[in-house]
Amino acid sequence: MSPKQKDITLLITLIVLIIAINYNYLDTKLTNFLSNSETAKVQRVIDGDTIEIENKTSVRLLGINTPEKGEIYYNEAKRFLEDLVLNKTIILEFSKNKYDMYDRTLAYIFKDNENINLKIIEEGFGNFYFPSGRDKYYNQFKEAWNKCVENKKNFCEPSEDICAKCIELKDFNYKGQTITFYNKCNFDCDLNKWEIKDEGRKKFVFPDFDLKSNMEIKIIVSNKTSTDENLYWENEDYVWTKTGDTLLLRDNSGKLILWKNY
Fold first, then answer.
1. Are the C-beta atoms of residues 120 and 61 closer than 8 Å to each other?
2. 183 and 122, same structural domain?
3. Which of 63, 128, 148, 259 gives 20 to 30 Å between its CA and that of 202?
4. Has residue 117 got a pLDDT over 90?
């Protein structure tokens, strides 16, 4: 065998040896590349719907939205997620979009074959949230929210405000970006600091405002200044998405008054 042939044989042997030693690693990487999921270890829980895995990769949980910092149940939602996944190995399952506008990875996460995103809704630490359109989990998540409301769990706990049963959603014109509420009671209702939210982060906080008995008020998404006849959801081009959304009305303590989905 010539020196050149010996060098080639030695090189092939080294390559085979490297592949053999790193087979599991390479096999895992190849499997992850070809599949729609991968495994990872959770290194940090940022909040109730965001975690950090290896290489400081931020993962935003799909299908849910949990309270923001300063809102009711923010701390509880974060602790709940920490108890479930912190320092544990999980499976990330991706949907049609793998990244959001902030370059975060988007995924459903599973621990011991349990959908953690779904469990967060079931236990009342967030609402369902599908800004990019409904996927195969949508019906499960909506049903989980319905059960959460029925069971009055945490974030789904109903308001005890005297006006909770007075205020009705008379019209929800999501195409025209307007909402109309009606006070059916025979007394005025103080809506000061009541909140309207979509499935995500957009929020309207009522000013110092009384909705008179048997009267209605229209909230319009606009840059105009509120009047006595209408209230304007300012600094927003739109709130209600074309792909479907949810209106959540809460009292000044964050408790649920009503919700409407389309």
1. yes
2. no
3. 148
4. yes
